[in-house]
TrEMBL record:
<keyword id="KW-0472">Membrane</keyword>
<protein>
    <submittedName>
        <fullName>Sodium:proton antiporter</fullName>
    </submittedName>
</protein>
<keyword id="KW-0406">Ion transport</keyword>
<feature type="transmembrane region" description="Helical">
    <location>
        <begin position="60"/>
        <end position="81"/>
    </location>
</feature>
<dbReference type="Pfam" id="PF00999">
    <property type="entry name" value="Na_H_Exchanger"/>
</dbReference>
<feature type="domain" description="Cation/H+ exchanger transmembrane">
    <location>
        <begin position="15"/>
        <end position="417"/>
    </location>
</feature>
<feature type="transmembrane region" description="Helical">
    <location>
        <begin position="6"/>
        <end position="24"/>
    </location>
</feature>
<feature type="transmembrane region" description="Helical">
    <location>
        <begin position="178"/>
        <end position="200"/>
    </location>
</feature>
<feature type="transmembrane region" description="Helical">
    <location>
        <begin position="326"/>
        <end position="349"/>
    </location>
</feature>
<keyword id="KW-1133">Transmembrane helix</keyword>
<feature type="transmembrane region" description="Helical">
    <location>
        <begin position="361"/>
        <end position="380"/>
    </location>
</feature>
<feature type="transmembrane region" description="Helical">
    <location>
        <begin position="392"/>
        <end position="411"/>
    </location>
</feature>
<keyword id="KW-0812">Transmembrane</keyword>
<feature type="transmembrane region" description="Helical">
    <location>
        <begin position="207"/>
        <end position="230"/>
    </location>
</feature>
<feature type="transmembrane region" description="Helical">
    <location>
        <begin position="250"/>
        <end position="277"/>
    </location>
</feature>
<feature type="transmembrane region" description="Helical">
    <location>
        <begin position="102"/>
        <end position="135"/>
    </location>
</feature>
<dbReference type="InterPro" id="IPR006153">
    <property type="entry name" value="Cation/H_exchanger_TM"/>
</dbReference>
């Protein structure tokens, strides 16, 4: 019976993934909102009691499913970015300046603020830090309405006016990997005790070493695949000529695997692989084809996860939620993230070098959508240190994700339309 229900949920997700984008295109409502609501309604029906919904009993499955969703999304996000990043070009780095500020200032401030709120609410220090870390990354999966639509090809001319969407997209692509060191702070606090026992190891390996390994692995894999796809001496290996877009899946799996095997952060490897591959033959239509494959798979997996999340919400996932969890979740969405984002973006860069107007700064600070990545990090940490897999944390993180889906989903269409009234907010294929 349980297996049959999984097929039913997967089929419903696929159908909704096909029809929802066009149905909701002009409404202030998003596909994730609908999926969570439908799931909650399904959860209220007379379903079997043995459904695999308890996060404590199904932690490993949750970890691997959400892990797959995130890496597929990271590949799609990396391929969607038209703005190149040349490691030896300072001007190129300056054009990403808003992204760097959100990552270097906004994310650590958000982590610290949420951790302090958790500690004030009575959490142990390790659990408080974990709460801040898992809720820190913005989500590349659920934020499609405020991100770039996809790669431009043909006569390529990067739209320098679209700073807001570029900033939110690139931030989401990078901070899913950069939150990992802070998750490890919580794990090490829970398993190794005092900071003096592991502080230097954390800085040298978890903060610097694993980030560098992940980035280098992604660059190397991306360059190798680009050479094979576009410039290989063997015609059979030049898959770009044949338009074989499934290379997107091979790229994300290979880069993630290489990054993880070498001991780095696989999320960073996938994203850097994608932007490295995107930098090769940038006007080639093959990039759009690869992005479409990643986007469609991401949409299907995301809607499946959200439908299951909705079912779980009305089947006991929120049983441990109390006023403290509600307050922390709403504080993050309405106060902490906007304040941290504005702090990071307060110094405006020159226009054309990652500069945002004041309204765009407020929008970039506010639209820090939380989502599937937070579930993955919590499941991963609970596997490394079981004492961190508290029911209260699962309930609070789930509530925060749903609240973010609702608040940001309702506001994204009108806000983005006001900031860019001439833009079609829902081009074909977007959620």
């Amino acid at each position: 019976m349980t297996a049959d229900l999984v097929y039913l949920v997967a089929g419903a997700s696929l159908l909704l993934a096909i029809v929802l984008p066009d149905l909701l295109a002009r409404w202030a409502i998003s596909a994730p909102m609908v999926l969570v609501g439908v799931g909650m309604l399904i959860g209220l029906t007379s379903l079997p009691d043995d459904l695999p919904l308890d996060p404590q009993d199904n932690r490993a499955a949750i970890e691997h499913v959400t892990e797959l969703v995130v890496i597929v999304a990271l590949m799609g996000v990396g391929l969607a970015l038209d703005r190149p990043l040349h490691l030896r070009d300072r001007a190129s780095w300056r054009r990403w300046s808003a992204t760097w500020r959100l990552l270097a200032i906004g994310m650590p401030v958000s982590i610290a603020a949420v951790a302090l709120l958790g500690w004030a609410a009575g959490l142990a220090p390790a659990a408080a830090v974990l709460l801040g870390a898992v809720l820190a990354p913005t989500d590349p999966v659920l934020a499609s309405d405020v991100q770039v639509a996809g790669p431009q090809t043909g006569d390529l001319e990067v739209d320098e006016r679209d700073e807001l969407r570029f900033t939110l997209t690139s931030e989401a692509g990078l901070n899913d990997g950069l939150a990992f060191p802070f998750v490890y702070v919580a794990i090490l606090m829970a398993t190794e005790g005092a900071v003096s026992n592991w502080g230097l190891e954390w800085v040298g390996y978890y903060l610097v070493g694993k980030i560098m390994i992940g980035v280098v692995a992604g660059i190397v894999v991306g360059r190798i695949l680009a050479v094979l796809a576009f410039r290989s001496a063997s015609r059979s290996l030049r898959v770009a000529e044949r338009g074989e877009s499934l290379l997107a899946l091979a790229a994300l799996i290979a880069s993630y695997g290489v990054g993880e095997v070498l001991g780095g952060y696989g999320f960073l490897a996938v994203f850097t692989c994608a932007i490295t591959f995107r930098s090769a033959e940038r006007s080639h239509d093959y990039h759009a084809a690869m992005h479409e494959v990643a986007e469609r798979l991401e949409r299907l997996l995301t809607l499946f996860v959200l439908l299951v999340l909705g079912i779980a919400l009305t089947r006991g996932l929120l049983d441990a939620l109390d006023w403290r969890g509600v307050a922390i979740g709403l504080a993050l969405i309405l106060l902490v993230r906007p304040a941290a984002g504005m702090l990071a973006l307060a110094i405006r860069a020159k226009q054309g070098e990652g500069g945002l107007s004041r309204p765009q700064q407020w929008a970039a600070a506010f639209f820090g959508v939380r989502g599937v990545g937070s579930i993955y990090y919590l499941a991963y940490a609970a596997g490394e240190a079981p004492e961190l897999g508290q029911d209260w944390l699962w309930s609070t993180v789930s509530f925060t994700i749903v609240a973010s889906v609702l608040v940001h989903g309702v506001l994204s269409t009108p806000v983005m339309a006001r900031l860019d009234p001439d833009r079609d907010l829902h081009p074909e294929g977007r959620e």
